Amino acid sequence: MHTPTKLKCQIVTSADINFLPAACCMLISIRDNLPASMPVSCLLAGVDIDDHDIETANRFLEQHQMPPCVENFSSDELINDSFHVSERVTKAGYLRLALDSIVPAEFDRLLYLDADTRVLAPIEPLLLSDLEGYPFAAAHDIGQYQDDRIKQARELLGMPETAGYFNSGVMLFDWKLTLKTGLLSDVRDYAASNPRKWQYHDQDALNAVAAGRWKALDPRWNLNDYYFAMGGTKTPWIKHYTGAKPWSKWRRPIWKADSAWFERILKNSPWPEAYEQQTWREKLVMLREYLRTSSRNPARAIAYYLWPFLMSAGAKRRAAAYLNRDKPDIEAIIEEFMPGTEGITGSQ
Fold first, then answer.
1. Range 174-212 burial, b when 16+ CB lie within 10 A, else e
2. How far is CA 342 from CA 76, 129, 188, 238, in A?
3. Which residues contact 92 (CB under 8 A, 6 or more apart)?
4. pLDDT by residue (tens digit) across 33-65?
5. What is the separation, in whole angstroms, between the first and last Cα of the chain?
6. Burial class (CB in 10 A: 0-12, 13-18, 19+), 68
7. By the 8 A CB rule, do 329 and 336 touch?
């Protein structure tokens, strides 16, 4: 099927006051990877943010050669009171379920990006990808395919035995088709039906309702912490910081280059404090956590990675074999979802 080259596109992210600086940085990463010849409008949907902070964010974007696009939306009007909300699961996160209330029907494509993502490759191929009749596309959530997690998710959500599970941090919608099917309205009803049952809340609700109705994105459009912590080496087109953020003091060693990018952007922003300096104690804690999650044995990993000169060649081989024991072959998992050509691949 031929994909038209002149699609009217909008890119949307959402944030509360805590994630407003990160969301602005994400928009700057879009600017760096969107050709001037492709007119695309952006919307940063602020949730319960006061007018002063909205104006501050828009001025900051203008300083970075971006049209002001931050608007405020009330959670009382858009977010169902039945939704489970916590420090980790915020009202801003649920805004993706209300996109049909804030994005006009005039758009052909809507790309939703979480505020804790960063675009690292030209985004035009993604926006113009052929969705082949599906209402939206997303990337498989790689972490769900380790052990029996996908089986547990299918059972919990009442999904078919062959259903895939996607991460909702990057979603490309055929917007007119999505509105026609009433997909998001169905997801909201589902999310409100038993809000404390779901592990990933809005994402679980999206997967349950949309099972069999989404197209799989090349995973490089949404590579997250889990992939890199498990040793993944593929070049990401969009990075998704699903764990400790690269601008926080608990950032992981794997985010060193990303951290430097956020530090540079935020240093001269209205929110320099959003980039938290990391003490040696915090660096050591995060190194230990990284080694724990990636190697299963922090003490042996520290010896292997930091003091290899103390180990004989045979000891190194035995240590390497031990550290890789029970560690998922993340590249083998991700290869299952790699397309034959770049961009969007087959149905889920």
1. bbbebbeeebbeebbebbeeebeebebbbbbbbbbbbbe
2. 41, 10, 33, 14
3. 14, 15, 16, 19, 47, 75, 115
4. 998 888 899 999 999 999 999 999 999 999 999
5. 18
6. middle
7. no
Distance of alpha carbon 202 from alpha carbon 172, whole angstroms: 16
What share of the chain in percent tops pLDDT 90? 57
Per-residue pLDDT for 178 more than 90?
A: yes
pTM of the model as a whole: 0.87
Report the mean per-residue pLDDT for the chain.
Answer: 86
Whether the CB-CB separation of 119 and 26 falls below 8 Å is answered with yes
Three-state DSSP string of the chain: CCCCCCCCEEEEEEECCCCHHHHHHHHHHHHCCCCCCCCEEEEEEEECCCHHHHHHHHHHHHHCCCCCCEEEECHHHHCCCCCCCCCCCCHHHHHHHHHHHHCCCCCCEEEEECCCEEECCCCHHHHCCCCCCCCEEEEECHHHHCCCHHHHHHHHHCCCCCCCCEEEEEEEEEHHHHHHHCHHHHHHHHHHHCCCCCCCCHHHHHHHHCCCCEEEECHHHCEEHHHHHCCCCCCCCEEECCCCCCCCCCCCHHHHHHHHHHHHHHHCCCCHHHCCCCCHHHHHHHHHHHHHHHHCCHHHHHHHHHCHHHCCHHHHHHHHHHHCCCCCCHHHHHHCCCCCCCCEEEEC
pLDDT band at 83 (very low <50, low <70, confident <90, very high): confident
Are the beta carbons of 252 and 225 closer than 8 angstroms?
A: yes
Name the residue among 325, 296, 334 with its Cα closest to residue 144: 334
C-alpha distances in Å from residue 322, one per residue of 301, 306, 330? 9, 16, 17
